[in-house]
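The authors assume throughout that readers already know how a fold can be written as discrete tokens. A single example would do more here than another paragraph of explanation. An entry of this sort, consisting of the sequence and the corresponding backbone structure tokens, reads as follows:
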Amino acid sequence: MNQYLLLLKGKFELDYSEKALHARLDEYHQWVDTIQKYYLYDNRLEREGAFISEKEIKTDGPFLESKEIIAGFIVLQAQSLQQATDLAQSSPLLRYFDILVRPIIEKES
């Protein structure tokens, strides 16, 4: 099986109250339980950071626009990009984030 990175990109400013966050996390954990054989790991990212381009570094934050926030990532294993895409499409997180699916290139020994 190959590994795939799912990047969670913000669609809009989310409610980060404890109640709303726990509700999203509960939905997420239920989804992970259904795809357990494909799931490897995930992590949330801090809202603050830096954007670096060839000519400048921007650190005004939390970020330039909430729609640009990469909120976190998930790493799955799947037989193909299509299967990884299908798994991503089944995620309840699509209500809150766009999900970018990218194959991870295996390092050569």
